[in-house]
Predict the structure.
Amino acid sequence: MARAGRRPGPTETREEILAAARRLFAEQGYDGATIRGIAAEAGVNAALLHHYFGTKQQLFVAAMNLPVNPAEELPRLLATPDEQTGERVVRLFLSVWGDARARAPFLALLRSIADNEQAATMIREFLTSAVLSRIAEDRSVPPLRAAAAAAQLVGLVMLRYVLEIPPLATATDDEIVALVAPAIQYYLSP
């Protein structure tokens, strides 16, 4: 049984927890990995994970080094009036992907899910439960429509930021929003 409280001595505990989380998320997927299992793998009490990271979703975001935490961004996105959802979603995507430092972890993640079925499963489970299902429920749309909106956005960022296809790569954010937001709005409107 893991000891309660902090370990004595230098505190590498946070990094050990993150390393354990990465291993278990990779081996068991997002749904399969548990806070208790990760705590046991790191040799700490589950309460310490909650102290450092809060929720399983926040631990996942930290372990994967994601520049955006859906637990923070989704409530802000979903608090907007329904008719502004498409524009807010597209602007959020463009702001995250437009920042080269924020883009780097996403690019690494895309590469890993393309080459590794375990990584793909982990990300699929996380996106489905932490993002897409919440958006679909909040906006009263079928999950297929939330997934279609995500597909449109992933295609956009692939062409704009990864492949850098002109004129998408050179268009202003406002031009992209004007073109893409209506489609996202359609997907996310009941």
Q: What stands out?
A: The CA atoms of residues 11 and 17 lie 11 Å apart. Residues 13-63 form a domain with the Arc Repressor Mutant, subunit A fold (CATH 1.10.10.60). The mean pLDDT is 88. DSSP finds ten helices and no strands in the chain.
